[in-house]
Amino acid sequence: MKIGFIGCGNMAKAIIGGIIQAKIFENKNIFASDAREKELSEFCTQRNITASSNREIATKCDIILLAVKPQVFPDVLPEIAPLTDDSKLIISIAAGKTISFIESFIGTHKIIRIMPNLNATIQQSVSAVCGNALCTQNDMTIAKQIFSSIGSVYELEEDKFYIFSAVACCSPAFTFMYIDALAKAGIAYGLDEKTAFCAAAESVIGSAQMLKVSPETPQVLIDKVCSPGGTTIEGVNVLRSENLEHTIQKAVKASYLRDKQL
C-alpha cells in the first residue's frame, strides 16, 4: 500500500516521521509533493522517501493525504479529481473544509477528515477523525493507525469538529501564552530565564498528567491545592476576579466561530 502527501509542510513532515518510526509504511511506499521543490527534495532525501507531484500521487497512491492549506484546495482538488477512482482513500487535515466541500470537487470517494494539532511535531497530537458513508471500518482503522503514530485519536461526528478544533487544536497557543506569562512573572521577581520557563512548563505538564490519571474533577483538584488563607488561594482569587475562566471560554468561542467561517 502506498501513501502520498500532497503538501509537505510541518504537519505533513510530523506525520511522515511518525509513520516511519511506527513502521506503518515502508519508506519506498511514501510519496510527497510540495510547491517548494528544493525544500521538498531535501526532506525526501533525508527521510529516504520519494519526491513526487500532485498528479503522480493521485495516480499511484492508494491513500492520498491532503496537507495543503485550506485556501489552496480549490486549486489542488480539480487537478487530482480526474486521476482518482473509488478505490482510493482521501484523507484531509485541512481546518474548516468539510467532507461535502471535498466531494463537491472530486465526487464520490472514500473521504476521511482528521484534525491534528501542533504537538504532532513531538508525537503528542490530539486528533479527531470522521469519515463519509463510503469508508469501511478498515479505512477508519488505517487512518487511526496513521494518526496514532503522532498522538491520540478520537472518532467524532463531523459537526463536532469545529468545537474540537477550538478546544484541542487552538489551545496549544493559549497554553503557551499561559506558560509565557507565568515564566515572565517568575523572571520579574528574581528567577533566571531558564529556571522560570522550565519550572512553568514542567508544572503545566505535571498538572495535565495528574488530571488525566485522577478520578477527580479539575475543581476538586483546585480545592486540594488551595489551603484556606494560603498563597495559592490568593492567586486563584485574582484569576477569578479577572474572569480568567470566562476569558478562556470567550477565546474558545472565537476560534470555534472562525473555524465555521473558513
Topology:
Elements: E1 3-6, H1 10-21, E2 30-33, H2 37-47, E3 50-51, H3 54-60, E4 63-66, H4 73-80, E5 89-92, H5 99-106, E6 110-115, E7 125-131, H6 137-148, E8 151-155, H7 161-169, H8 171-188, H9 193-213, H10 218-225, H11 231-241, H12 244-261
Parallel strand pairs: 1-2, 1-4, 2-3, 4-5, 5-6, 7-8
Antiparallel strand pairs: 6-7
Helix pairs in contact: 7-12, 8-9
CATH class of the largest domain equals: Alpha Beta
How many domains? The number is 2
Structural class: alpha/beta
**Beta-strand level of the residues, as a percent range?**
5-15%
Taking the sheet with the most strands, its summary is: 8 strands, mixed
Task: Write a concise keyword list for the protein shown above.
single chain, 262 residues, alpha/beta, Rossmann fold, ProC C-terminal domain-like fold, 2 domains, eight-stranded mixed β-sheet, 12 helices, 8 strands, elongated
